[in-house]
């Protein structure tokens, strides 16, 4: 696998109520989304049931044999495996509370190995090998051999018609899990240009309720049913600090209210949140010209008029 920055643009999830217009005869079927709060409870019950009745190959990770592939495998607790420790009881399982659309979800993250390298923020890009599967362990996407660069938050760009639209981004449950791991500390490039990673990258799995996945609108042809909780096995190889608008301010710093959402930070109130806006305060002077980047890479946010607001966020100061 070549080390490339290939950013996967994910399909945008449909949010809210989706319906078909009725005709005069009232014969056209109407679709009404399920209540997100009720679905969250149902999904959590399904996830807990899976976690209670399955285990992962923890013994192989505890005492890896020569040639062990360091891949997570799930199996049912029964028969000769009846004494195994369930995923729910595993000391490697953490439960993360995530609120989205005013609904609180339980995100179950299996941290088999945290990793030793850099930890990504919610605003960064990550190189990830992963397998996506349904609760019955049917695989719908397998990229364990060929890792993919993911732009975690996404950003706003103009489409072919000059209208602002969202590009990039991953499922909320996927992003919320990746920030709990660290990348590898390094790699070697073989003569055939394949990559050999240091064996200290993050390894884990995440069990995602549908409200933090595709909810009622999975991608067409994906094989994912509506309202399906999902499971992702992940290896985090590398992380890169993102600057989506190339203005010199890392995207993680553009989350001004520190709520983990880059899209509600918009200083000048235009169609572009700060991390997608090369002129954050809309004063006509690009952000890049209102900050100072030192030779060592240190960022200085100047405040020329000493009003407590950095120049690049202050529409009352411009050059």
UniProtKB/TrEMBL annotation:
Keywords assigned by UniProt, alphabetized: Isomerase, Rotamase
Known catalytic reactions: [protein]-peptidylproline (omega=180) = [protein]-peptidylproline (omega=0)
Coiled coil: none
Every PPIase FKBP-type domain range: 123-240
Region (Disordered): 252-319
EC number(s) from the headed UniProt entry: 5.2.1.8
Compositional bias per record (Low complexity), positions renumbered to this chain: 259-272
EC category name: isomerase
Protein name: peptidylprolyl isomerase
């Amino acid at each position: 696998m070549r080390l490339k920055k290939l950013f996967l643009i994910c399909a945008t999830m449909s949010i809210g109520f989706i319906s078909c217009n009725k005709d005069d005869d009232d014969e056209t079927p109407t679709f009404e989304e399920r209540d997100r709060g009720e679905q969250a409870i149902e999904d959590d019950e399904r996830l807990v049931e899976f976690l209670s009745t399955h285990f992962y190959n923890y013994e192989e990770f505890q005492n890896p044999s020569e040639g062990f592939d360091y891949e997570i495998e799930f199996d049912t607790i029964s028969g000769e495996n009846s004494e195994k420790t369930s995923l729910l009881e595993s000391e490697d399982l953490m439960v993360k509370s995530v609120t989205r659309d005013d609904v609180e979800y339980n995100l179950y993250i299996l941290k088999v190995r945290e990793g030793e390298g850099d930890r990504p923020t919610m605003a960064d890009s990550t190189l990830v090998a992963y397998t996506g599967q349904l609760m019955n362990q049917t695989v719908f996407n397998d990229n364990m051999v060929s890792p993919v660069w993911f732009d975690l938050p996404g950003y706003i760009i103009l489409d072919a018609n000059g209208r602002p639209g969202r590009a990039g981004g991953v499922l909320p449950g996927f992003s919320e899990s990746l920030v709990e791991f660290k990348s590898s500390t390094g790699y070697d490039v073989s003569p055939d240009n394949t990559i050999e990673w240091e064996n200290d990258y993050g390894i884990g799995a995440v069990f995602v309720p549908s409200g933090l996945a595709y909810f009622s609108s999975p991608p067409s042809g994906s094989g994912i049913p509506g309202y399906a909780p999902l499971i992702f096995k992940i290896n985090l190889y590398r992380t890169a600090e993102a600057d989506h608008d190339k203005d010199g301010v890392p995207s993680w710093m553009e989350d001004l209210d520190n709520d983990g959402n880059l899209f509600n930070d918009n200083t000048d109130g235009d169609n572009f949140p700060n991390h997608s806006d090369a002129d954050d305060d809309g004063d006509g002077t690009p952000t890049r010209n209102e900050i100072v980047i030192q030779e060592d890479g240190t960022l200085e946010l100047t405040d020329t008029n000493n009003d407590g607001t950095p120049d690049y966020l202050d529409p009352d100061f411009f050059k």
